[in-house]
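Researcher: Please translate sequence to structure tokens.
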Amino acid sequence: MSASLRILVPVKRVIDYAVKPRVNKAQTSVETAGVKHSMNPFDELSIEEAVRIRERKKIPVTDILAISAGVAKCSDVLRTAMAMGADRSIHVEVNTDKDGELEPLGVAKLLKAVVEKEDRNLVILGKQSIDDDSNQTGQMLAGLLGWPQATQASKVDFEGEKVTVTREVDGGVETLSANLPMIVTTDLRLNEPRYASLPNIMKAKKKPMEKKTLADYGVDDKRRLQTIKVVEPPPRQGGGKVADVDGMISKLKELGAI
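Model: Translation complete:
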């Protein structure tokens, strides 16, 4: 008899992927005031995969717990996660508007405490968030817990307590397997997230959402990194046309490309 899954899915509220980010006047960060936010796209994949694992019924799923740390509006992405299929959620209240975003190590320490307190045996999280692109939290969490990890998953399968993950690598695909408990980070080819239906959005309003603080988990919010300056990339220069191949070769030589 295989063990049942107790899945934790961290989700993050980020500037919507369709919005072009703007650097603030102080050049310390990206402007977030008055900008549309939504769930990090890689985290949508994680919620979707957790729900699909339950729907496949190859291994029992006890519950799917979504968690987010940040300002009050993070509850919006948690409601979305529950509308997509998560059973309950935890909102760890952090004033990121004032103190800045939590760093990957701080998030990993928080998730470790949640895993232990909530008795989780599978964590599925996005390989990165599209705001800082750190791609570190999953790996750090695996290190803190001493659990096996499979990053950038494009396919996840179960056989009892054995988890098999396919991931894309340069030149092909790689298949990894390990026993639970385990950390899996998601990549874009894993699935296509569902849209939350109106009935499920209404049901999500009745699902439990706990309010917590970092202190409840014994985690400090000390920042170890300092952003010196943020600037927009220089505008792209226009291209040029050449009459023939000889002209192209001459131009490349002039630019020092060959």
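Researcher: Any highlights?
Model: The chain has a mean pLDDT of 91.
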